């Protein structure tokens, strides 16, 4: 059976994001997948990249360099436990689903902190092993999120621009950088401004998509997909 | 005298980011500006958007909605003290400088949390007052950051794409959305891979730019600037 990690960032289980997460757990479990969930707010996940992420002595305690110190700590098994736990889940997973409400054209800080802290050098990439030769090859990622604004404003002529513009840092800059192939995003536009009926249809559409997810081809994660 | 708020996110005062911050404080003070600094790691700034940001009762404690609750709390003066403090600084400032190392094509989570939590509806925007009619008009913002990768990889033909692509969510999606006009970014590429001499030149160049900063015109913060 395939393994899926859902990294989930919403404060409220009753929210649409909470329901989308539950639908994914149910549908994927029904398929025989083993599903892990990192419920970041419930875990009170630490988003700040600090010296606390390294257990024991630093390589250079005179001038703290987070990237260098976490790389070294990773190699000697000296990262903090919460990071080791998350890395174990990532390592096992065939698919990473990120479920969140869009905050400021990006993911909420608590999820950005997951990226900043979990995907350390040595584990997820190690120069020159990045992009197509990143260390998390043979995995897939899917960004599933809700927006405040309508679909119309997130178009080329719309005031917020094509929704793909804001996917570049997340999909290309993070996932592709680590060698992960990216499936098309799943976007629920403006759920707060539609009827209860339409929100239910959003959940059904997500469950439907998940039924044939493993047959999907990754997107071509290059500037053409985002900007042309 | 003009007022400047530097929102600064680096763990190490001896880093280049720390030096860039100090240079800005010195140069702007010398000009007669009053300079405020939010040193996010030193403040142990909270990046997580949670119920703790609202003092007292919630509008709807059955189903927590962060955007709605912080908007209401703002209107009745019921946001947590750390947010009120930051909003005071933003309100006073003519110019916001964001100083940080680029983490994953974006700002570190601790700074993303500052955006998520400080720029609440009612304070920074209030539909339909967004973009050119956002509530923080007559302010300027400048993103000043360091990168791990070289200038060459952040070009249209380079593997990481034009550096402007990743500025879209930060400059347009956040600052422009709040009505803030954006000055050209200040980017120090790959300081870890250049000589001590070249790092000193980077500090001098920043001080030089700041001398004539108030004469600069904001960029045209529209898709053309970013993607053409």
UniProtKB/TrEMBL annotation, chains A, B:
Any Pfam family hit: Flavodoxin_2
Ranges of residues in domain Flavodoxin-like fold: 3-210
Chain's role: The enzyme apparently serves as a quinone reductase in connection with conjugation reactions of hydroquinones involved in detoxification pathways as well as in biosynthetic processes such as the vitamin K-dependent gamma-carboxylation of glutamate residues in prothrombin synthesis.
Protein name: Ribosyldihydronicotinamide dehydrogenase [quinone]
Cofactor(s) in the UniProt record: Zn(2+); FAD
Family: Belongs to the NAD(P)H dehydrogenase (quinone) family.
Reactions listed under catalytic activity: 1-(beta-D-ribofuranosyl)-1,4-dihydronicotinamide + a quinone + H(+) = beta-nicotinamide D-riboside + a quinol
Entry keyword Cell inner membrane: no
Xref: PANTHER family: NAD P H OXIDOREDUCTASE-RELATED (PTHR10204), RIBOSYLDIHYDRONICOTINAMIDE DEHYDROGENASE [QUINONE] (PTHR10204:SF33)
Main location: cytoplasm
Species, as recorded: Podiceps cristatus (Great crested grebe)
Tree of life domain: Eukaryota
Single annotated GO MF: NAD(P)H dehydrogenase (quinone) activity
Keywords (A to Z) from UniProt: Cytoplasm, FAD, Flavoprotein, Metal-binding, Oxidoreductase, Phosphoprotein, Zinc
E.C. designation(s): 1.10.5.1
InterPro entries: Flavodoxin_fold (IPR003680), Flavoprotein-like_sf (IPR029039), NAD(P)H_dehydrogenase_qn (IPR051545)
Subunit structure: Homodimer.
Subcellular location: Cytoplasm
GO CC, alphabetical: cytosol
Gene3D superfamilies found in the cross-reference section: 3.40.50.360
């Amino acid at each position: 059976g395939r393994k899926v990690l859902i990294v989930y960032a919403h404060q409220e289980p009753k929210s649409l994001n909470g329901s989308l997460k539950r639908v994914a757990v149910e549908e994927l479990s029904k398929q025989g997948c083993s599903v892990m969930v990192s419920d970041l707010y419930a875990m009170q996940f630490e988003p700040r990249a600090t010296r606390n992420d390294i257990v024991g002595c630093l390589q250079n305690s005179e001038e703290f360099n987070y990237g260098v110190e976490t790389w070294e700590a990773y190699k000697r098994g000296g990262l903090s436990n919460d990071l080791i736990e998350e890395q174990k889940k990532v390592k096992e997973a065939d698919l990473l689903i990120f479920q969140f409400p869009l905050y400021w054209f990006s993911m909420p800080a608590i999820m950005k902190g997951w990226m900043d802290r979990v995907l350390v050098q040595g584990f997820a990439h190690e120069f020159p092993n990045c992009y197509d030769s990143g260390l998390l090859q043979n995995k897939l990622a899917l960004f599933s999120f809700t927006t405040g604004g309508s679909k119309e404003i997130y178009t080329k002529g719309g005031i917020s621009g094509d929704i793909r513009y804001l996917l570049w840092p997340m999909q290309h800059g993070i996932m592709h950088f680590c060698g992960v192939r990216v499936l098309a995003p799943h976007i629920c536009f403006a759920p707060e401004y539609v009827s209860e009926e339409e929100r239910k249809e959003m959940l059904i559409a997500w469950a439907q998509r998940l039924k044939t997810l493993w047959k999907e081809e990754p997107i071509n994660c290059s500037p053409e997909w985002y900007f042309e």
